[in-house]
Design a protein that fits this description.
heterodimer; A: alpha+beta; Arc Repressor Mutant, subunit A; Glutaredoxin; 2 domains; disordered C terminus; B: Glutaredoxin; Rossmann fold; Ubiquitin-like (UB roll); five-stranded mixed sheet
């Protein structure tokens, strides 16, 4: 993923503001649009958002930081959410979470050192009869036991290796890729 | 041409329905078969997903759970003729006892139609309620809803007709306010309770039913604008609703000239951003307005000062989706189902460790035991059932001694539980109830909006106190402290988040005390 240059980013943000600022209660739709575009909400966007909606920067920051779904920093190439709510707990999600943390070598809200995966908890994906459930992008997967998680992670870390053109970041000792 | 159905519902997709559909399409083409694929909603028989259905002259025949690798074999064994020789054949769908023994009013069409086809919707009785609503006065629509006895299906169970009457009679003139003169219908589709998926199943499987219900609500109270506040955890529902709203607009079921009546109803879809508290109606209204999802003190009621300070009906998806039936068949027809003051049907959701999880719509009055065993088939793990959480994360954990209480708002409350949004999460005997109690506090810690100190701070202290109890530190004193903390949260919180988090904690302590006296393992981190 090629990061847009600073100028591009500013222009794109202004464009999104233009498109959304006239909606009733525009802030959430606008923040969603910005995050959809950049993967996060660049802090540099906050003053422009505040000005366009006649809010203070503190109010905009307050909204961004209130919702678990908004991020102020870039995340990994994939965001992997594991459901931690009761119905999935009843089907083994506590074990799945432990396994996933171990396998990735990260805790919740952290990104693997190779930048591939950001691990996040989620509280219910509405797939409660066939958990444990995980979400990756806009895909929701059910009946994910540790073995299924391993297959998913293998797929996720292999695909970009085959297709992406930019060089990989250096490996770290505690974050070895699966052998190809 | 034979219709073959493969659901496009989240649960079916989560188990590989797209791969099944792709393979089926390939094989149909490859073999030159005369069949076409329809992506329907789910029947809600989730243990059988992905569930393929095939049209026959006697009704649809079901096959499930199907993987893409099963397709060649199924076709070889005559699936397209409804052949019953394959082990995955479940017989006629309508004859599967799980489905046959339900009373589906709200979910009557779900799984049968192509959710995005307006023609399908109309051919299966859709828009009859709206057509009638357009011919009667606003007050008569409200009369009909009052007569039905419909109560809010989001959890609070407030009489829907009374709420609508209040908004109908409210004066929307707010001199100087940007939205003066308007009233709103807001659909609460922030279905955050674990163990619930009925809103999602309905929005993905029959989105026009919700749209129709919202338009009728608009006609009833004089609102010209509606919002669906959908949680962002439902990307599939988002796609389907976006598409459905656009199609309904194109066909004149939304917009400035509803079915040529010169009435107006515009509908907007809004996404939440992963905040459980936004399922609380006043927090949701703040979020809709572009603010932090902080709970508002009541009064004023949203019916008087709701979205953008205007009179607003806030109803759950299932409440609004029950309305078209009530208008089409009459309030009395709906009220004929149910018991006591709980009229009509409730879509119960069987979740967690059950062999047959899914959606069960039944008249109020069925027992929890019947839902767990007759429908749910006991645990999937094969171990004994031990605890059941009813009504979401703020509902009590009920032990077996409570499973014979009828599922009725009042009767279940008398037994210490609550129907809530109808979610039922079953745990087998491997569950550690001290950990579940701890999780209730942890969840409140993560999701509290922060407005009320007993909730914001109490939840953090709650986790700490439960950890000390689990670690055998000053057990008696800490148990007293925990009860005291629960009292404070209950009495000192504006909304149910802080006020009801003690429910799961106290019930775990009361019914499963042994779990709090286990030797400490020391490996349960935050």
């Amino acid at each position: 993923m090629q990061a847009p240059s600073h100028i591009d980013q500013h222009d794109r943000i202004m464009q999104l503001i233009e498109q959304h600022q006239h909606l009733p209660g525009a802030l959430l739709p606008l923040l969603h649009a910005i995050q959809q575009t950049f993967g996060y909400i660049p802090p540099s966007a906050v003053p422009a958002i505040a000005e366009s909606l006649a809010l203070s920067r503190a109010e905009v920051h307050g909204v961004i930081s209130f919702y678990h779904g908004f991020r102020s920093q870039p995340c990994g190439r994939n965001v992997l959410q594991v459901c931690c709510a009761e119905a999935c707990q009843a089907r083994g999600s506590r074990q799945l979470v432990d396994h996933t943390r171990q396998r990735l070598g990260v805790d919740f809200h952290q990104t693997t050192a190779d930048g591939e995966i950001t691990l996040e908890p989620v509280y219910c994906l509405g797939n409660c009869a066939t958990g444990p459930s995980v979400r990756i992008g806009d895909r929701i997967l059910g009946r994910v036991d540790p073995a299924a998680m391993d297959r998913l992670l293998d797929d996720l870390t292999r695909e970009p290796l085959r297709f992406k053109s930019q060089p990989l970041p250096p490996e770290t000792s505690d974050n070895k890729r699966e052998a190809q | 041409m034979i219709n073959v159905y493969v659901p496009r519902d989240t649960t079916a997709l989560s188990l590989g329905a797209d791969a099944v559909a792709d393979r089926l399409e390939q094989e149909i083409q490859h073999r030159g078969l005369s069949a076409q694929l329809v992506r329907n909603g789910s029947r809600g028989l989730f243990w059988l997903e992905p569930l393929i259905e095939v049209d026959t002259s006697e009704g649809r025949v079901a096959y499930g759970p199907v993987t893409s690798d099963d397709i060649p074999d199924l076709l070889d064994q005559g699936m397209l003729d409804g052949g019953g020789s394959h082990p995955l054949c479940q017989g006629y769908t309508e004859a599967i006892p799980y489905l046959q023994n339900q009373q589906r009013l709200t979910f009557a069409r779900v799984g049968i139609t192509d959710p995005l086809s307006i023609t399908d919707y109309r051919n299966h009785g859709g828009f009859r309620g709206l057509e009638r609503a357009l011919t009667v006065g606003a007050s008569q629509i409200v009369d009909e809803v009052e007569c039905s006895g419909l109560r809010g299906r989001g959890g609070a169970a407030f009489p829907a007709g009374r709420k609508w009457r209040t908004v109908l009679e409210a004066d929307p003139e707010r001199p100087g306010q940007p939205w003066s003169g308007h009233k709103f219908i807001v659909c609460n589709a922030d279905e955050g309770d674990s163990g619930t998926f009925a809103d999602r199943l309905l929005m993905e499987g029959d989105p026009y039913l919700l749209i129709e219900g919202m338009v009728i609500a608009g006609l009833a109270v004089g609102a010209d604008t509606g919002f669906i506040y959908l949680r962002s955890e439902y990307p599939n529902a988002h796609r389907i609703l976006t598409d459905a709203i656009a199609r309904a607009e194109a066909e004149g079921y939304l917009g400035n000239n509803l079915l040529g009546s010169s009435r107006t109803f515009n509908l907007y879809l809004r996404l939440g951003a992963e905040a459980y508290i936004c399922g609380e109606e006043t927090a949701m209204l703040n979020s809709l307005e572009g603010k932090r999802g902080m709970v508002r003190a009541k009064p004023p009621l949203p019916a008087h000062h709701g979205a953008f300070d205007q009179p607003t009906v806030v109803n759950n998806v299932l409440t609004l989706a029950a309305v078209p039936y009530i208008l089409a068949e009459g309030g009395q027809a709906y009220a004929d189902f149910g018991m006591g003051r709980s009229r009509g049907t409730q879509p119960f959701q069987l979740a967690g460790n059950l062999a047959r999880g899914g959606l069960v719509e039944l008249a109020f009055g069925v027992t929890l035991r019947s839902l767990l065993y007759d429908f749910g088939g006991g645990t999937e793990s094969g171990r004994p059932l031990r605890a059941v959480q009813v009504g979401g994360p703020l509902g009590a954990y009920l032990p077996e001694s409570h499973w014979d209480a009828p599922m009725d708002y009042e009767a279940l409350a008398d037994a210490g539980g609550m129907v809530g949004h109808g979610g039922i999460v079953a745990f087998d005997d491997s569950v550690d109830m001290a950990q579940q109690a701890r999780f209730a506090m942890e969840f409140c810690w993560v999701e509290s909006c922060g407005k009320c100190t007993p909730c914001r701070i109490g939840a953090v202290r709650g986790v700490e106190v439960i950890d000390r109890i689990i670690a055998n530190q000053d057990r008696t004193d800490n148990l007293t402290l925990l009860q005291d903390l629960c009292d404070t949260m209950e009495m000192g919180s504006l909304c149910a988040m802080g006020g009801m988090t003690p429910n799961p904690v106290r019930s775990a302590l009361q019914y499963f005390p042994d779990d709090f006296a286990r030797p400490a393992t020391g490996n349960e981190g935050a």
